[in-house]
Specification:
By secondary structure, the chain is mainly alpha-helical. About 75% of the residues lie in helices and about 0% in strands. It contains 28 helices and no strands. Helix 2 runs parallel beside helix 4.
Length: about 500
């Protein structure tokens, strides 16, 4: 009944109304409480809508069914193979589609469709690997920027191999939290290669010098990529470097001179075939290390420098003296140069030249660190000074605001007086003369005027005071008046005093 009525109605309805009705029917089937017969009829009607000539209807159906796990699989698969505007909502969110469906859609779809698939939540290794192989730059950037996509280190390296010259891809990969050290190294090499090409195009430096600078930059990137990773990750990086022919004797020497014995241990173990425990013992014993050095296939001329650097590193470790960061250590380099300086073998000249270059590099790195520390201290002082000035200005502004508020409160009482004086001074010329003093007195509040009026004496207090004064003798009053008035009459004779006092 539903199929017959719905299909009959869609014969004459517009595409917009059919799209609305399709979305309503799909929601009813997915989320409504339909019986078995009604659900079957609704499902059949939805499948029949796949043949609707309007993409608007099919897109409404795709958007409604995209996020539902109850959507019929034949319906979802058909929608994923439709035109791009219909297929993309399903490809972006549908949990019904399998990895095989997504890989097939990526292979047959356009670049925008691949980008939609690359942005799916929790993208599997299989789909991510397929996109890494066939996707262009935009798709690879979306894939790398998807934090939930499961991308293996090999697929990341493949992405860098295909589009490592694109800065957007490098930035997206560097932002990932699961970036392994070999991918970090590959990204550093890609950046160095891009800079080398830039300098070469402008003919700023010679080709040989650029090659050496690029090689040394790759060595530094390799050691910096190991920072914060364990032995397993370092071993994986060493394996990658050996497979790509980037694990050189110079890199191992740089690792020793930088105090990165974990990298040197993994590299010597990989080259010699010995286990890590045996290599660690040999690195502490010069006699055993000579045999390890030979089995690893390293140049014999490097042996004195390696032994001296390892001995100096052990001295620093026993003294608990830290080795600075991942850069070269001047103390280790000086020990290596001291071990090679007295040798007259011509084969040692390249080694001594390399060590001198390492020493210059270490000196520049230390100078840069000192300069950065000085600049940071100066910036901190300047920031503190500006903050103090801002705090002082804020304190002065608050104090000035409080002072103005207090002054305004104190002058509120005198405002009527000021107004009265202004009215008296600015009155019309033809008006009757105004007495300014009277205007001021009239404007003063009654409380202020009360301060200047004589106080009224209580009659009872006045009567008591008069009684006391009447009881006093005349001579006492005359004496008090005389003491207050030096020019007054002379006081009475002294012989009268006893009598008056007695009286």
């Amino acid at each position: 009944m539903i199929i017959r009525d719905f299909l009959a109605w869609t014969q004459d309805a517009s595409a917009e109304r059919r799209a609305e009705a399709t979305a309503t029917l799909a929601r009813t089937y997915l989320y409504g409480d339909l019986g078995a017969d009604a659900a079957w009829e609704a499902k059949t009607a939805l499948l029949a809508l796949l043949d609707d000539p309007s993409p608007l209807v099919r897109r409404a159906l795709a958007e409604t069914c995209a996020a539902s796990a109850r959507a019929p699989r034949p319906l979802v698969v058909a929608l994923s193979s439709d035109v791009p505007e219909v297929a993309r909502p399903v490809l972006a969110r549908s949990p019904v589609l399998t990895d095989a469906d997504l890989v097939d859609a990526a292979a047959l779809g356009d670049e925008a469709t691949r980008a939609v698939i690359a942005a799916r939540h929790h993208l599997s290794h299989a789909v991510a690997g397929a996109l890494a192989e066939i996707g262009e730059t935009d798709t690879l950037v979306v894939l790398a920027a998807n934090p939930t996509a499961k991308i293996t280190a090999g697929r990341m390296l493949r992405m860098i191999e295909r589009r490592g010259d694109e800065a957007a891809l490098r930035e997206a990969l560097l932002a990932r939290a699961d970036l392994p050290p070999e991918v970090r190294h590959a990204l550093g090499i890609a950046v160095a290669r891009a800079l080398t090409d830039f300098v070469t195009d402008r003919a700023w430096l010679g080709a040989e010098r650029l090659d050496r600078m690029s090689r040394e930059a790759g060595e530094r990137v390799a050691l910096e990529a190991c920072e914060g990773f364990g032995a397993a990750a370092v071993t994986r990086l060493v394996t990658h470097l050996r497979a790509s022919r980037q694990l050189t004797a110079g890199l191992i020497l740089r690792a020793v001179l930088s105090g990165r014995t974990d990298f040197a241990l993994a590299a010597l173990a990989d080259l010699s075939g010995q286990d890590h425990a045996g290599v660690a013992r040999a690195m502490r014993d010069p006699r055993l290390f000579a045999d390890l050095h030979d089995r690893a296939g390293l140049p014999e001329a490097l042996l004195p420098a390696m032994q001296a650097a390892l001995a100096a590193w052990q001295d620093l470790a026993r003294a608990a003296a830290p080795v600075r960061g991942t850069g070269l250590s001047r103390r280790l380099i000086e020990s290596a140069i001291g071990a090679c300086g007295d040798l007259s073998d011509p084969d040692m000249h390249p080694v001594i030249t390399l060590l001198n270059r390492y020493e210059a590099e270490a000196a520049r790195d230390e100078a840069r660190e000192v300069a950065r520390a000085i600049a940071a201290q100066a910036l901190a002082r300047e920031t503190a000074r500006r903050e103090a000035e801002a705090a002082d200005a804020a304190w002065r502004a608050a104090l000035e605001s409080q002072r103005r508020t207090a002054f305004a409160e104190e002058t509120d009482t005198a405002t009527p007086v000021v107004v009265a004086i202004a009215d008296a001074a600015d009155g019309p010329a033809e008006a009757e003369p105004v007495n300014p003093v009277g205007a001021i007195l009239d404007a003063l509040p009654e409380q202020i005027l009360a301060w200047y009026r004589p106080e009224e004496v209580d009659p009872e207090v006045q009567a008591a005071t008069d009684l006391v004064l009447d009881g006093l003798g005349d001579s006492i009053l005359d004496h008090f008046r005389a003491s207050r008035d030096p020019a007054g009459p002379e006081p009475a004779a002294s012989e009268d005093k006893p009598e008056r006092i007695a009286a």
